[in-house]
Amino acid sequence: MAAERGARRLLSTSSFWLCCLLLLGRRASGAAATRSGSPPQSPESSIRTFTPFYFLVEPVDTLSVRGSSVILNCSAYSEPSPKIEWKKDGTFLNLVSDDRRQLLPDGSLFISSVVHSKHNKPDEGYYQCVATVDSLGTIVSRTAKLTIAGLPRFSSQPEPSSVYAGNSAILNCEVNADLVPFVRWEQNRQPLLLDDRVIKLPSGTLVISNATEGDEGLYRCIVEGGGPPKYSDEAELKVLPDPEVVPNLVFLKQPSSLVRVIGQSAVLPCVASGLPNPTIRWMKNEEALDVESSERLVLLAGGSLEISDVTEDDAGTYFCIADNGNETIEAQAELTVQVQPEFLKQPTNIYAHESMDIIFECEVTGKPTPTVKWVKNGDMVIPSDYFKIVKEHNLQVLGLVKSDEGFYQCIAENDVGNAQAGAQLIILEHDVAIPTLPPTSLTSATTDHLAPATTGPLPSAPRDVVASLVSTRFIKLTWRTPASDPHGDNLTYSVFYTKEGIARERVENTSRPGEMQVTIQNLMPATVYIFRVMAQNKHGSGESSAPLRVETQPEVQLPGPAPNIRAYATSPTSITVTWETPLSGNGEIQNYKLYYMEKGTDKEQDVDVSSHSHTISGLKKYTEYSFRVVAYNKHGPGVSTQDVAIRTFSDVPSAAPQNLSLEVRNSKSIVIHWQPPPPATQNGQITGYKIRYRKASRKSDVTETLVTGTQLSQLIEGLDRGTEYNFRVAALTINGTGPATDWLSAETFESDLDETRVPEVPSSLHVRPLVTSIVVSWTPPENQNIVVRGYAIGYGIGSPHAQTIKVDYKQRYYTIENLDPSSHYVITLKAFNNVGEGIPLYESAVTRPHTDTSEVDLFVINAPYTPVPDPTPMMPPVGVQASILSHDTIRITWADNSLPKHQKITDSRYYTVRWKTNIPANTKYKNANATTLSYLVTGLKPNTLYEFSVMVTKGRRSSTWSMTAHGTTFELVPTSPPKDVTVVSKEGKPRTIIVNWQPPSEANGKITGYIIYYSTDVNAEIHDWVIEPVVGNRLTHQIQELTLDTPYYFKIQARNSKGMGPMSEAVQFRTPKADSSDKMANDQASGSAGKGSRLPDLGSEYKPPMSGSNSPHGSPTSSLDSNMLLVIIVSVGVITIVVVVIIAIFCTRRTTSHQKKKRAACKSVNGSHKYKGNSKDVKPPDLWIHHERLELKPIDKSPDPNPIMTDTPIPRNSQDITPVDNSMDSNIHQRRNSYRGHESEDSMSTLAGRRGMRPKMMMPFDTQPPQQSVRNTPSTDTMPASSSQTCCTDHQDPEGATSSSYLASSQEEDSGQSLPTAHVRPSHPLKSFAVPAVPPPGPPTYDPALPSTPLLSQQALNHHIHSVKTASIGTLGRSRPPMPVVVPSAPEVQETTRMLEDSESSYEPDELTKEMAHLEGLMKDLNAITTA
Questions:
Q1: Reported confidence tier of residue 1047, pLDDT bands at 50, 70, 90
Q2: Omega of the bond prior to 80 within 30 degrees of 0, cis?
Q3: Helix/strand number for the chain, H first, E second
Q4: Is 998 left (phi over 0), alpha (psi -120 to 50) or beta?
């Protein structure tokens, strides 16, 4: 298929260029005909096109048996049709006289009856299809191997065996590999059916796992290979009961190394037996294989591993581990995956002229690496001076001649198979321009021939062609311009040359116009060449110059390379090199020069040698060197040999380990740490370390401990309490022990102290300043029960953080030197242990001026534990960089300015790397030592910012910490599920639930969304659960239309940019039971929402329709209920008006000047201008009697990009009050585009399918005193919501009004505003006024986003029910689950009267007039409701 596709692309490309050539040819010939007066000639006579010629089907490897028939398919495409022939093992078959083999019409080879015997195998071999088109060329197919299965021969047969019940058994039957597919088994002379428990391995072996009594019997294997079946010996299998003595765990069948081709299946057998019955697990390259979750890995009966559709990544070492609880055994095998040859780049068709150089490109891949050979017209291309293989696979043809035309094929083959790809070469006449742009397959020396020629005068022959420089390998030619063009500025030249007596001519072009010299390279010494030069102008090539005969000079007879050079180490410091006399010495060899160089350096040394061997001494131990030899004769140095590399022998280390330190763990153990010796002194591979320790009081009693491998620390236990010990360490190689470190002392604790916390503050700190130093003394912390491992002294001018020095825990004095005179220093002292540093103690001191020469007391200066620091401090490392490698690994690199330019460490300095993260803020630094200029920090947290700094220590000197480098580890999939998953029912909507949760503790990155799974069956497969995606970092979600009185199970999964995290534990929730009030509430709330329509959320003022509209279930509402409801609404309205009038009169009389000012300020804030205008703009008072005030305060001035819920300012003006008429819906729709509030999105879903996202309007809501009980009320579907506003606060709240002016629409979302916080607190019942919205006529067709209940309906039905409402409260951008807010029902009239009496608010007469105007508007609305 690949060849067919390539040929089709070739055909289409050729057709395209043919069209282009025809068009260009017509234009050129037409123009020429016009100038000459003759008719234009057809271009077909001069330009030939590439002919599509390729194989449609190629033969493939085939396995057959004796006597059967075989078809090897082959079909080729060409116009005219090609002639098909066949080759077997490279020789053409004569199919005319063959009665068993015949050629089918399509070109396939048919073998009627395969012949195969021990001494006669005429049909087995390699077949190749050859297609030929006369006058065009020949192509060959890939070779196909025909294998004939031999006679059945058993290499192993089943043997009698026994197996314990429940264990595994194997029965061997191994035949030659060709016959394995024809092996079958019988039990008791009956065919054995294979299943998951009884399998046949690819080798033919039978495996029976979990043996039962039914497996007993006689077994035999049968081979049916085309002839009569051949039977193996019969073997009896017995099934035994449990033994008295438990048998050991053994392998019955171990895996063996396997070679498979990509795409095949591989079976690694592994069967074990033992009691208890063992379990088999597999590992690849020391990583456990998860067979259960992989689609390509299958665990067969007994424990064998089958890998289907093998890929290159499957190659490696596999370990079979058998474990039965008592024993564990393992076996291993290597799986090698091979890949058939594939073409990365195929040859392309080429146009060329004679004498040009071309390259056919061919790039292949495969495993093992394929070899490439080239075929021209079916014959092998033999490399020569003019046919060369370049860049391993490409074919270069130099100096083209006409006979080079034809089809060239690149054939790639390896142990797995072979493949071929071809291209056509057409050589044009010199007067025919090449029709394409220069392809990459043309060499740079011939590209000048590609410019199309036009009609005009051609240049004459170049003059005075001479060889100005003749060497052994090159000739430089020069000439003068042709006589026809004496200036020659626009002429280019081609130099044609060939060996004398050779017809094949090559060409070399000048590099630029006007250039009249060229150098011909890669010539042979002492060889005669014939040269001629031609000039070209824009019209074409001109006349050729007369041939010039030049002979290259003979090459100087220098020696060739010395053969058989060998090098071998004789000691850790010497290497002997031997060689032989060069084969082409070209005279007497005078001497040799031996060059050698240490690997990794660029300094080569040499020594003169007169013999054929030499020993180089004084070399470095365990160091690799390279050697080469050059022979000299009387003419000079000859050709150098290839380099040979050898390493000197290893030796014992010549230096002790570095940075030895002791850490007292407790009263009986000490940890010793060290670093390896410097690399140049290791003298071999360090195989371990020898630790010697002793009591300081008994120096003759020494104990030794060996540490193998590269371990750099050791815990020494079993020591005595309160005893001082000396320690030293020496490094080991295979040659012995190197020098040891100096003795280092440490004293165990008297008692085991506490090291679970940092030490307390030192009990005292004293400083005594001198001129250039300060003597510091201190006493240890008062709490002696906490481990103190040392003290950290920080000091600096004005700040104690400039320099830090650490001293031993026994030390009580220290002298800080190299200070500036007359300077104010701040000094800090902290005790530390392995947990961290304790609380610092501060002190300050001013060094004395230069004139003060007094000394400190001698006992302080000569304190036994006061070290004398080196006068020159160390420079801190520079250029610290953090390179992030993975989610938990960062590489730290730095430079040390105190090292030489090559940054090579030759002394005993070491570096300390520290790192920490600021989350949490009190995280302590972690430290590690390094002896190189980089360190790999592992074990970090994903997606976490770390800071790193480095310091250098040399002896007693240490630098300050370097400048910090920062790096953030890569993200990782969440490793913990979302937490605190809760499910609550939505009030008034028993079919709707709200799922709340918190982000996972280990998010390991930015959470980009969640997936909610829910199902009614907790044991169902996870792919059978319903999925609800949640985009962004929202922490709440609504799921709608659930089944009533049904238990549901919910799981949540978080995701980030790296993938999905684990699922949370299933949370159960049972939906509520439904009653009649539920149905009524749901009917009123949902309406015809199922049809996809939705009206604006009318909030708490919404009244159900008064007409007897049908519910969604078809049950009509009785007219009696509607009339009763109407009477109740009118009655309550009248009572409300009377009460408001009484309150207004009462409050007017109690107005104070302070309240006037307060009210004036409130008007200025909330916009009192809304009361201005005609009576149409007057705002009526609110009908709500017992409301409490709700404040909405923005929690953050900056917009929150991911708000959970947002507030919705509701317009409050008289335009929101629309009389009930047919234009009400249109008015509402006209106002929807003027809405500029904020809204949040709440995803709604059903089990049947996911609904679209719909905006939800958050209304201000009421609350009640905390002592009141809270009960879920499923009797109604709506809840009261009022628009409250608080004046004279520190911000301006959005004014509330009826929600009827808002039509929910996703087009009106505006989530870029600040997130509000709801503060609920009691207020006066008459602080808020609102007008009940008038519903449109007809049944309701909306589904409110949040629950709401008409208050008037509650009063009419005498339902004093407390409803629970949820609200999401934002906190500094972090979202929390909704919190329940309790909304009270309307109070009784008596309670209202008492509240009115306690009211402190009053109104002025002018305000009363305005309020009366409001009441008039309200009465008109009530009349409209009554008439409706």
A1: very high
A2: yes
A3: 10, 94
A4: beta
Which residues is 220 bridged to in the sheet?
186
Rounded Cα–Cα distance for residues 1286 and 659 (Å): 72
Burial bucket for residue 668 (CB in 10 Å: 0-12, 13-18, 19+) = middle
Query: 676 vs 1215, which has greater pLDDT?
Result: 676
User: DSSP 3-state assignment of 646?
Assistant: strand
Write out the two tokens for 1205: 């819920």
Of 1323, 1238, 1330, whose CA–CA distance to 1288 is shortest? 1323
b (16+ CB within 10 A) / e for 1278-1295:
bbbbbbbbbbeeeeebbb
Instruction: List phi, psi (to 5°) of 593.
Output: -120, 125
- Give me the half-sphere count of Cα atoms (radius 13 Å) on the Cβ side of residue 212: 3
User: In which region does residue 198 sit, left (phi positive, over 0), alpha (psi from -120 to 50) or beta (all else)?
Assistant: beta
Name beta bridge partners: 518.
477
Under 8 Å between Cβ of 536 and 448 = yes
Q: Cα–Cα distance between 971 and 967 in angstroms, integer?
A: 12
330, pLDDT greater than 80: yes
Strand, helix or coil for residue 533: strand
Closest to 848 measured CA to CA, from 903, 739, 785, 770:
770
* End-to-end CA, the chain: 80
Residue spans of beta strands (DSSP E) within 665-735:
670-675, 688-695, 698-708, 713-716, 724-733
CA distances from 959 to 363, 833, 934, 955 (A): 56, 21, 17, 11
864 to 577, 745, 812, 832, 858: CA distances (angstroms):
59, 15, 10, 22, 11
What does the DSSP 8-state code read for residue 448?
G
Q: In the prediction, which pLDDT does 1048 show? A: 93
Matching residue, tokens 């050779």 = 502
Say what the pLDDT of residue 1123 is.
67
> Cβ neighbours of residue 8 under 8 Å, at least 6 residues apart?
none
Cis peptide before 781 (omega within 30 of 0): no
* Cβ 1083 vs Cβ 999: under 8 Å: no
Lowest average pLDDT, out of 385-399, 904-918, 1235-1249, goes to: 1235-1249
Q: Within a 13 Å sphere around the CA of 114, how many CA atoms are in the beta-carbon half?
A: 26
pLDDT value at 1374 more than 70: no
Q: How far apart are CA 1132 and CA 1118, in angstroms?
A: 22
List the structure tokens of 1130: 């009118």
The DSSP H or E segment spanning 1044 is none
Report phi then psi at 1138, rounded to 5.
-60, -45
**Per-residue tokens: 137:** 């060329």
Structure tokens at 849: 């001026």
> Is residue 297 within a helix (H) or strand (E), and if so which, with residue range?
strand 297-299
**Quick one: which of 366, 374, 344 has its CA closest to 416?**
366
Q: Which of 462, 480, 362, 475 is nearest to 411 (CA)?
A: 362
Beta bridge partners of 106: none
Q: What is the DSSP string of 972-1040?
A: ---SS--EEEEEEEETTEEEEEEEEEE--TT--S---EEEEEEES-TTS-GGGSEEEEEETT--EEEE-
Q: Which two tokens stand for residue 815?
A: 């002298």
Q: Can you read off the two tokens belonging to residue 1193?
A: 């305060």
| Number of neighbours of residue 684 by Cβ within 10 angstroms | 22
Strand-strand pairing, 235-240 and 161-164: parallel
User: Tell me, what amino acid is at 1025?
Assistant: W
Amino acid (one-letter) located at 550: V
Q: What is the CA 659 to chain-centroid distance, rounded?
A: 39
H or E element, residue 1230: helix 1224-1231
In terms of Cβ atoms closer than 10 Å to its own Cβ (0-12, 13-18, 19+), residue 600 is exposed
Q: At what angle do helices 1119-1148 and 1389-1397 cross, to 10 degrees?
A: 10
Residue 621, classed as helix, strand or coil, is coil
